[in-house]
């Protein structure tokens, strides 16, 4: 039920499908490559700011800015290493497309459709990361790295052109400043004022703590997981590639069909709790499991746990006012960005404490001459093969206990029925958009390891970005 008085630029009325295309192209382009994306603290600080500004000035211009800066380093990869690293460090502050996308979706969906729309966006994100690394590896093997970089650059340009030409503004005119030149009070654009208001809301605060505690182990898991499967469980490269594909496909199914079913039967909060329960189970299974069949079973459970993030995004969008969707989605995205920086460091430290050495394999080839690390002899089997996974399971147990105290809003339909139709559609769209935003930030960009597993969770998928096939 989008309104008819939207910015005429773009094709048709704003819809979830505009958001889906933007996300797919952006991450497909990065998934073709094998470079790490430096996010973390920068995105933690910038995501709420960009989300808040999009609540004032509209989504379309900020979609352009975030996609442009996220993809700008791609062509520089082969042109100039110095400019590439300068640009990629700067792009960390802007790699927060998900917060804007989720706010966009919230603008154009009503509350009942929002969790389904968030799941669709998250599944699209997963699909782009499941397909692109294999395609990038194949093209690189047959035609060289330059073609892959060129193709990724063209896809990123296509994404920017799509936003410019086809994506209409989703924020209703009455909720945003119509022109950039209009006078604006600092209170309207002050993101810190918005953050303070949102931070005083105990519901949003509890959701943010839940996201931090559950995403921290996930970010760490995906940074080391493929190397762990390869060196400790002795998976071959082919088996790893199949594992990534199977878990990726299962998580896409979980985020579309299963998520919709659970939201209708269990409700929003219970779906979040179920997703966290699946995450505890898979982390504990990875921690204690030493046989390959256990890894496959835990991977299937991990795919089930990918429902957590769209459900959390829908929950936080319900808890925020229509004009605060960008801010709250930005907070979630920012927390995921922070976890992307802290999680891998935490896992590496715990592996170090327990004398489990994971060595990087298949370093990036090309202009950046990185000497491969010598491979050590296979690690001796310890009593607990994966101590960091158990630590992560304990963290998620705490997240589960925090999530139990998140108040369940009375059916939002009662409150939203009091809003005008236009306000209602605006609110809903924003919520879905924000959920997506969270996913995006979580995502580490493509990494250099050949075998990165796609994770079942949205968070899982991000690791795919982090460690893509060379």
From TrEMBL:
Keyword tRNA-binding carried by entry: no
Keywords, ordered alphabetically: Membrane, Transmembrane, Transmembrane helix, Transport
Annotated compartments: Membrane
The keyword Glycosyltransferase appears for this protein: no
GO terms assigned for molecular function: transmembrane transporter activity
One Gene Ontology cellular component: membrane
Domain of life: Eukaryota
Principal place of residence: membrane
UniProt topology in membrane: Multi-pass membrane protein
Positions of transmembrane segments: 16-45, 57-76, 82-105, 117-141, 147-167, 204-228, 240-263, 270-288, 294-316, 337-354, 389-406
Annotated stretches, region: Disordered: 410-470
Record-linked Pfam families: MFS_1 (PF07690)
Compositionally biased region (Low complexity): 410-422
Homology family: Belongs to the major facilitator superfamily.
Protein name: Hippocampus abundant transcript 1 protein-like
Gene name of the record: LOC115250141
């Amino acid at each position: 039920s989008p309104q008819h008085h939207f910015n005429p630029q773009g094709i048709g009325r704003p819809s979830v499908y505009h958001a889906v295309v933007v996300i797919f192209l952006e991450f497909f382009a990065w998934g073709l490559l094998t470079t790490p994306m430096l996010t973390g603290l920068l995105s933690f600080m910038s995501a709420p700011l960009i989300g808040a500004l999009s609540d004032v000035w509209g989504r379309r211009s900020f979609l352009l800015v975030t996609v442009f800066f996220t993809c700008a380093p791609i062509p520089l990869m082969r042109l100039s290493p110095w400019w590439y690293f300068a640009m990629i460090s700067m792009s960390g502050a802007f790699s927060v497309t998900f917060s804007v996308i989720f706010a966009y979706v919230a603008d154009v969906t009503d509350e009942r459709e929002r969790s389904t729309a968030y799941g669709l966006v998250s599944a699209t994100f997963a699909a782009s990361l499941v397909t692109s690394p294999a395609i990038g590896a194949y093209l690189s093997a047959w035609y060289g790295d330059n073609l892959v970089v060129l193709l990724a650059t063209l896809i990123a340009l296509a994404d920017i052109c799509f936003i410019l030409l086809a994506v209409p503004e989703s924020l209703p005119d009455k909720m945003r400043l119509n022109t950039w030149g209009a006078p604006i009070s600092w209170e309207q654009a002050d993101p810190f004022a918005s953050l303070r208001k949102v931070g005083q809301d105990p519901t949003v605060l509890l959701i943010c703590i839940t996201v931090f505690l559950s995403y921290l182990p996930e970010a760490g898991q995906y940074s080391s997981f493929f190397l762990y499967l390869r060196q400790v469980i002795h998976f071959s490269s082919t088996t790893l590639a199949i594992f990534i594909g199977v878990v990726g496909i299962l998580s896409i199914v979980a985020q579309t069909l299963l998520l919709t079913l659970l939201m209708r039967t269990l409700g929003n909060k219970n779906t979040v709790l179920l997703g966290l329960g699946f995450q505890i189970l898979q982390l504990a299974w990875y921690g204690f499991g030493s046989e390959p069949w256990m890894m496959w079973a835990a991977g299937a459970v991990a795919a089930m746990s990918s429902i957590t993030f769209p459900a959390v995004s829908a929950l936080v969008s319900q808890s925020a006012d229509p004009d605060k969707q960008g801010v709250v989605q930005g907070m979630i995205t920012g927390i995921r960005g922070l976890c992307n920086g802290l999680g891998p460091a935490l896992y590496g430290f715990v592996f170090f404490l327990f004398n489990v050495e994971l060595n990087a394999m298949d370093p990036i080839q090309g202009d950046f001459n990185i000497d491969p690390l010598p491979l050590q002899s296979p690690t001796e089997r310890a009593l607990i093969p994966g101590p960091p996974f158990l630590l992560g399971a304990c963290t998620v147990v705490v997240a589960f206990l925090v999530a139990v105290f998140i108040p369940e809003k009375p059916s939002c339909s009662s409150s939203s029925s009091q809003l005008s139709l236009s306000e209602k559609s605006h609110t809903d769209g924003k919520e879905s958009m924000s959920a997506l935003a969270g996913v995006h930030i979580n995502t580490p960009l493509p990494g250099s390891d050949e075998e990165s597993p796609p994770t079942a969770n949205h968070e899982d998928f991000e690791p795919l970005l982090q460690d893509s096939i060379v």
